[in-house]
């Protein structure tokens, strides 16, 4: 294989129009979070995405003994501490049994002193349906405004219509069928993926988490939150951690998120482990206020790309508003 391409800031640059739309979007995030307690009928302000927590747990990231020499200086310890949050992607907390099979597996990697090394918000769908930053910002703003009843459903449908063409790639359609086939499967049986690329030192990679030996029908008759808690209380969970390097921007595009990378093998760099009964209280204020902003990571682990760039301020706005509202609500469970 050729040497991987090196990170360049040009992949992240936003235009003036995109920056203006982003300011509007940030206001809609703040407005949504301010009303989120009533929207989800809970006693605290929630995130404006992945609002529902299934579980929070401690874990370990164990580096492979035969890791590539190119990465040995990046992972200079054999084992890293993790905090993990499992969630549903819906903006609201849905309390019925049936939920959309859109899941999050957010990982916080820490050093021996508990200092943050990297945040990775992973999801169970490997692609993203939008490449245009402007289209994404207009759609996300419309969704927020729809829920807080300031914009009509017609406006939201108009923005959704603009997204449909970018979901018609062979990669996207193939993965939609795979998700449909697994729609009733247990959350921990899914592979989880980074949304777009991340830096790994000087290089750019995508990340995949692949579970080992998880029964996809585990407690299928129970609500997902209950099933997850029962699984992690009764047994350990292990997943292989892979990265996929960017060697050629045509085969592994950074800002085209609706297609799979090709001609780049997945390389195992370690294993993620959650020990038996390592669950934390998901309802505690400390854990509910956990933030997995990938831009709080050390520079050599931060996201790459224009859509990714939006996450930095979006996470900050969401967290700042949640902290303010939850202090007012005196949420301290």
From TrEMBL:
SUPFAM superfamilies, per the entry: Heme-dependent catalase-like (SSF56634)
Concerning Gene3D superfamilies, the annotation shows: Catalase core domain
- The entry's protein name is Catalase
Give the species.
Chryseobacterium nepalense
Q: Which InterPro entries does the UniProt entry name for this protein? A: Catalase_sf
Classify the source by domain of life: Bacteria
């Amino acid at each position: 294989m050729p040497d991987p391409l090196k990170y360049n800031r040009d992949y992240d640059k936003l235009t003036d129009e995109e920056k203006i739309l982003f300011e509007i979007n940030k206001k809609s995030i703040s407005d949504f979070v301010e009303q989120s307690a009533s929207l989800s009928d809970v006693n605290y302000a929630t995130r404006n995405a992945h609002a529902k927590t299934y579980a929070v747990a401690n874990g370990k990231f164990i580096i492979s003994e035969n890791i590539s020499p190119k990465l040995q200086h990046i992972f200079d310890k054999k084992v890293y501490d993790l905090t993990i949050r499992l969630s549903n992607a819906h903006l609201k907390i849905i309390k019925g049994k049936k939920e959309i099979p859109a899941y999050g597996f957010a990982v916080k990697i820490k050093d021996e002193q508990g200092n943050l090394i990297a945040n990775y918000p992973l999801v169970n769908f490997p692609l993203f349906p939008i490449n245009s930053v402007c289209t994404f910002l207009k759609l996300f703003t419309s969704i927020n405004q729809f829920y807080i009843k300031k914009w009509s459903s017609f406006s939201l449908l108009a923005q959704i219509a603009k997204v449909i063409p970018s979901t018609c790639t062979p990669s996207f359609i193939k993965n939609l069928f795979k998700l449909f086939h697994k729609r009733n499967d247990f959350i921990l049986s899914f592979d989880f993926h980074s949304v777009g690329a991340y830096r790994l030192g000087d290089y750019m990679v995508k990340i995949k988490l692949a579970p080992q030996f998880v029964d996809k029908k585990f407690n299928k008759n129970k609500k997902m939150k209950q099933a997850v808690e029962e699984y992690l209380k009764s047994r350990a969970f292990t997943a292989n951690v892979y990265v996929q390097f960017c060697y050629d921007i045509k085969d592994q595009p950074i800002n085209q998120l609706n297609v799979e990378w090709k001609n780049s093998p997945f390389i195992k760099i370690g294993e993620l482990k959650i020990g038996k009964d390592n669950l934390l209280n998901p309802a505690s204020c400390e854990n509910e206020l956990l933030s997995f902003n990938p831009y709080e990571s050390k520079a050599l682990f931060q996201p790459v790309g224009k859509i990714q760039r939006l996450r930095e301020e979006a996470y900050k706005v969401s967290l700042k508003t949640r902290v303010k509202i939850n202090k007012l609500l005196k949420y301290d469970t």
